[in-house]
């Protein structure tokens, strides 16, 4: 199997908006007492150009954790294949024990999704989609499963090239 490298998208050329998905307070018990820390899961995206990314940050204070999460998300951007305002076909993404099902929806349906998947879909610029989160409800696993599903999306040109046909023949 040939090794292919994924081309990294530059965060500077997009108008990225960030959205905090989850903040977790973590306590570590040490000899001197308890050390309090925060972990933030953040999704960034540009709905106009269908680019989205996620990242996690940890720090002693919430704003620092969010800032670290945003920086990590900018390094992990993904271009999403869309058809007008929805996704081109049904897809199932997996990560760990979490799975996310994405189905195309007609105009006017809106985003039918839970809080975690909705954050990713709005950041990606998807306006009409039906989703179902299966298995794990852990926000980290759900976000990663959603990104796995979005990475599997193909447009007509890609499918035509794989089949050795032109787009008109499809």
Strand content: 35-45%
Query: In DSSP terms, counting alpha (H) and pi (I) runs of 4 or more, how many helices?
Result: 4
Order of helices and strands: EEEHEEEEHEHH
Shape: elongated
Helix content: 25-40%
Output the radius of gyration: 18 Å
Number of strands: 8
- Strand pairing plus helix content: what structural class? alpha+beta
Low-confidence stretches: none
Mean pLDDT over all positions: 86
The description of the largest β-sheet is: 4 strands, antiparallel
Kindly, what is the distance between the CA atoms of the first and last residues, rounded to a whole number of angstroms? 27 Å
Q: Oligomer, anyone? A: single chain
Give me the secondary-structure topology.
Elements: E1 17-30, E2 33-46, E3 51-59, H1 62-74, E4 77-79, E5 91-95, E6 98-104, E7 111-112, H2 115-124, E8 129-135, H3 139-152, H4 156-163
Parallel strand pairs: 7-8
Antiparallel strand pairs: 1-2, 2-3, 3-4, 5-6, 6-8
Note down, in words, how this protein is organized:
The protein is α+β, with helices and mostly antiparallel strands and 170 residues long. Helix content is 26%, strand content 36%. The strands form 2 sheets. It has a 4-stranded antiparallel beta sheet with strand order 1-2-3-4. A 4-stranded mixed beta sheet has the order 5-6-8-7. The chain is elongated and about 70 Å long. The model has no long low-confidence stretch (mean pLDDT 86).
